[in-house]
């Protein structure tokens, strides 16, 4: 599909209320054509609600959206959708399911067969195309679900937590496939797994309590909002815990990782390097290793969620 600056999805002040619960609050977003867009937030933040609105499964209480310039009441055929926990007829094969789905999309027989021949290898299920879906692993079901969602060549594919329930191998395979989809369509995927979003997405929006906290290009976000960290490695957890308490006395914000590692911001480390080294020496705390850790999306996410909770 190639690089584009055109907006494929435009959301304008989308709100959704369920009786006494305000699930979405004036959500406005713009998603670039040909991108993999990550919609990130804790459980219950409103991710699934927004995806179901974009899929036209539910209506917003207020606000509107467009896809490829078409108003929301004319977008259903432009969208493919994969639910968080897809369920398919277990007695069908993948090929049978895709044929059945193609007829529901109104595709011709020759078009369906041609598209199936393209999608089975793309999604890595060609060797199991004629096996019963009930025999598939979780990762294979998700990849089949993606094949079904893009069968009719939609402008946008909506993926709700596509890898959250999978084992590491299944997650890797599904994320690799999602990375390839930008050649086919614009991908809008939700997740609460920050590592997944950072791995495959070009842009990200963070939602909390139904409101957008920020939206930005992933790399720009990491450069502007996340601080590199320094990791101090000690021989045992007791030494690390002692160091943590002493750093707090120096007003150095820190946390323990993997029991024997202290993590502090690079800024704090350089600003108080002499005091930190003197403190370690004075208390006989042996430092086994010191190295820089690049900033991650998790750092940004936790910072903004904490900031919002304290506001």
Please give a structural write-up:
37% of the residues lie in helices and 28% in strands. It is of the alpha/beta class and 311 residues long. Helix 2 crosses helix 3 and helix 4 runs parallel beside helix 5. The longest helix is centred in the middle third of the chain and has 14 residues, at 109-122. The protein starts with 6 loop residues before the first strand and ends with a helix.
Brief account:
37% of the residues lie in helices and 28% in strands. It has 311 residues and is α/β, with parallel strands linked by helices. It has two domains: 7-224, Rossmann fold (3-Layer(aba) Sandwich); 227-294, UreE, C-terminal domain (Alpha-Beta Plaits, 2-Layer Sandwich), CATH 3.30.70.
Explain the layout of strands and helices:
Elements lengths: L6 E12 L2 E12 L3 E5 L6 H8 L7 E6 L2 E2 L7 E4 L11 H11 L4 H14 L15 H12 L6 E5 L7 H13 L5 E6 L2 H7 L2 E6 L2 E7 H8 L3 E6 L2 H13 L4 E4 L3 E5 H6 L1 H10 L4 E7 L3 H14 L1
Parallel strand pairs: 3-8, 3-9, 6-7, 7-8
Antiparallel strand pairs: 1-2, 1-4, 4-5, 9-10, 11-13, 11-14, 12-13
């Amino acid at each position: 599909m190639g690089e584009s600056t055109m907006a494929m999805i435009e959301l304008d002040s989308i709100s959704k209320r369920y009786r006494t619960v305000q699930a979405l609050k004036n959500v406005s977003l713009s998603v670039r054509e040909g991108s993999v867009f990550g919609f990130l937030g804790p459980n219950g933040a409103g991710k699934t609600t927004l995806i179901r609105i974009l899929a036209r499964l539910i209506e917003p209480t207020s606000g509107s959206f467009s896809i490829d310039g078409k108003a929301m009441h004319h977008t259903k055929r432009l969208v493919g959708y994969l639910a968080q926990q897809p369920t398919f007829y277990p007695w069908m094969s993948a090929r049978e399911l895709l044929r059945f789905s193609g007829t529901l999309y109104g595709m011709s027989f020759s078009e369906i067969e041609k598209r199936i021949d393209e999608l089975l290898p793309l999604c890595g299920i060609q060797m199991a195309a004629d096996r019963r879906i009930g025999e598939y692993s979780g990762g294979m079901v998700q990849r089949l679900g993606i094949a079904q969602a893009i069968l009719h060549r939609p402008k946008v594919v909506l993926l709700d937590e596509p890898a959250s329930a999978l084992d590491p191998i299944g997650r890797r395979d599904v994320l690799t496939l999602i990375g390839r989809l930008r050649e086919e369509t614009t991908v809008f995927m939700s997740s609460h797994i920050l590592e997944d979003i950072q791995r495959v997405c070009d842009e990200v929006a963070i939602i909390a309590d139904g409101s957008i906290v920020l939206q930005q290009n992933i790399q720009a976000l990491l450069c502007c909002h996340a601080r590199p960290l320094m990791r101090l490695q000690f021989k045992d957890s007791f030494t690390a815990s002692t160091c943590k308490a002493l750093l707090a006395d120096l007003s150095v914000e820190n946390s323990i990782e993997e029991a024997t590692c202290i993590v502090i911001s690079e800024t704090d480390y350089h600003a108080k390097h002499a005091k930190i080294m003197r403190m370690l020496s004075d208390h006989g705390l042996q430092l086994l290793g010191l190295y820089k850790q690049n900033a991650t999306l998790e750092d940004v996410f936790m910072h903004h969620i904490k900031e919002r909770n304290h506001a």
